[in-house]
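note to self — DONT lose this again. spent like an hour looking for the file last time. sequence + predicted structure for the chain T wanted, 512 res
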Amino acid sequence: MRHIIATAGLWLTCMTTTAQIKMPPVFKSALVSVTDSGTLTYTPDRRGNTMPDFSRVGYHHNDKPLPVHPVRMEIGPVEGDNTAHIQQAIDALEALPSDEAGHRGVLLLRRGVYPVERTLMVKSSGIVLRGEGDATILLATSHERYPVVKVSGQGLPQEIPGSRVDVTDDFVPVGTFSLTVSNASRFRVGDRVIVFRPATQAWIHAIKMDRITERKGTRQWSCEQFNLAFERTVERVEGNRLWLDNPVVMQMEKRYGGGQIYKYKFEGRVTEVGVEDLCIASVYRDDDDAEHAWTGVMLDKAEDCWVSNVTTHHLANSAVWCERYAKNVTVQDCRCLEPKSVITGGYRYSFYNNGQQNLFMRCLTTEGRHDFVTGARVLGPNVFYQCNASQTYADIGPHHRWACGTLYDNVVTDGAINVQDRGNMGSGHGWAGVTQVLWNCHAKTVVVQSPWTTGTNYCIGTKAAKGKPALDGRPEGVWEGWQESNLQIRSLFLAQLMQRRGMRWFLINGTE
């Protein structure tokens, strides 16, 4: 957060200089723009959908900076395999009591090389694994696929019996924070809820995902696969209307099954875990070797956690992987460099997100395939902000089936960014996503298509050639400001975050 505001401050200090430079006309989006008073205004489409607020993502919804805790324990490397040596220290720290904020302390790995043959597990809240930057190296030495560090709690989300109610609105638009239910008396401010959007055969038929062109291994979409459970918190209750902490990022319509809300608990999830200031590397036999360390840091069943300033070298797949139950995770200032594997499907997904309300910020990757990428049924909002990919072998964007609500903001790549119907790619990916927003991105080529119904994808202020889609004849996404160089809002994420902080938004060219 401090880095974000510092960036905003830098932009503001540039106002005097840039005001004296002849700039091209300011491009203002018709979807979201800045008023004369310096606040954001959103223009709904004919059904009431607006651009969602993507600012409530990452560690504690970006309402708190990443914490800096004192070192409570420190170790140095030993001869041979260090897995047990480090794991014993982690376990010892986990055995200590946590403070009122849920923190146990920092385990400092002093500079040196730590060979590790197996995964290091963080299974309790309040643990920070910290190194001394690139001088602390976790060297994965096994010729098998494994995450070098895994942060994960236990269990699954559990519905609280008797709490489920129907959403009674005929249509719930994208961007709204509120919806009407059949009985709001069951809910209180602070309740953790699931906004449940059931899949129906009518919806699957409407988006033509029961008619994917068949090839060997193709699977048509089925209802039981696409029930979507968005995690939210109740912020206000008025009558039978509930206000939530994050916006709706996929339309809900009665004709396609409507929606429901219920309370839940997730007692086994870990919180306040950090992995920071480390280098993670892997041995490998040759450039095509795929049987070695797979992921640098994997997070699942974790909330309000972070990965910061971690650099990986020579892994087969990803630097950071957020699984389905990773929520409100910030991944910042991380690098995925020189991966080693065959260059084909299933490998080199540099920064991979399957979770909810996660933020990937200022991350860098080289020689990857799908560098900033989401999987199947990924539930937003999620954000990739100021990320850079070079020497790419495939495309950035939603890669699998129906990711909902992702912002790619100021993402730069020398390859492609694609949001499209992927048809029978893989096992029948079909529509990769909805409410996917490219904002002020730079790429070699871009494809943005929108599903046949129930949603839209957007390409705003992007500099790139228009690429060739996998399948022709699909609806185009909303394109605005293509190849424009002077956007009124340079970063949607930053503008929304500043507005939430009560800060006015100024144009970089010095006008208001």
